Amino acid sequence: MEINRINQNQVDNSGLGSLKVKPPRRKMTAKTKKLIFVWGMLAYPILQFLIFFVLVNISSIIMSFERQVIGSSGISIKTSAYWYQKFYKELFITKLPQVRNAIVNSLFVGLNDLILVALSVTLAYFFYKKMPGRNVFRIIFFLPSIISIVIYTMVYKYMFNPQTGPVSIVLQKIFGWTVSSTPSWFNDYGIIMIMVYCLWVGTGYNILILGGAIANLSEEVMESARLDGAKMRHELFLLVIPMIWPTISVSILGAVTTMFTLFIQVELLTGNSAPTVAYLINNLVKRGKVNNLSEGAAIGLIFTVVATPIIVLVKKLLDKVSESFGF
Questions:
Q1: Residue 227 and residue 144: Cα distance in Å, rounded?
Q2: 114, exposed or middle or buried, with CB in 10 Å at 0-12, 13-18, 19+?
Q3: Domain for residue 259, yes or no?
Q4: Distances from the Cα of 209 to the Cαs of 213, 222, 270, 280, 283, in angstroms?
Q5: Any domain includes 96
Q6: Is residue 66 part of a domain?
Q7: For a Cys staple, 279 with which of 78, 98, 264, 266, CB 3.0–4.6 Å?
Q8: pLDDT (tens digit per residue) in 163-201
Q9: Residue 232 is part of which domain span?
Q10: Is the torsion defined by CA of 259, 263, 266, 272 positive or negative?
């Protein structure tokens, strides 16, 4: 006891007795660690959403009501009721033929994508039934899905080249055309060439998605239908399509959306000879003139207002069909 008192006095005399012992750190609970992990993972996509969706769209809406004027002091932005009236009047009167042509082409693209969905369902079912020659067709339809779109558009354009393209050469032999009388396919039939290209390139991806849905169907149900004497068309329309309808509805909704967003294929294949709405907006921005950004933003705003109720309506119709199938 005396020894402990002496040691304590020595510690106090050395000045170390004034040091306080830190209490042990509190450990984070499992719930806190989980919350930190979840919000840490969500922080980056939320930041991207706020910057590249919310901020960009708000800026685009504001820009559609602005006019950028070049002066001695640089570029100034003007907003006025006169500019709104003048700009939208020019957009729908002066440039109406160009806008109307883009709208018609976009409608054809949407119709083409609906045909693509129907074709993909049929081919996916035939692959499921192990039809003869299916491996050859798999290569034909799947190869475009793994090749760069730039390379594939170059190959596609080469196939229809009036001088060296194999398709043009075969048609010249059949119809007796000369090189000069051979149609300029991508200028004269631009939207048709885009539609054919989209059918060819898009089929592989859709077959992959829809084929996976068909492969997951209950074998007992399919076998029962075969034992009951169901033919292929009955099996396809009365069993397969209703059972994979949720997947088909997503593809249809994507087809409707593509109607307002397709522009890369147009840019690479036909350019301005067959513009779509998305290509028209992209072209206005790419020209680099001052007011083109405002024009592109205005057209984008208008077609957003048009497209949103259409997509919502299509979604509701698809949901109604899903309910009728029991989903």
A1: 38
A2: middle
A3: yes
A4: 7, 20, 29, 31, 33
A5: yes
A6: no
A7: 266
A8: 888 999 999 999 888 888 888 899 889 999 999 999 988
A9: 82-132+198-324
A10: positive
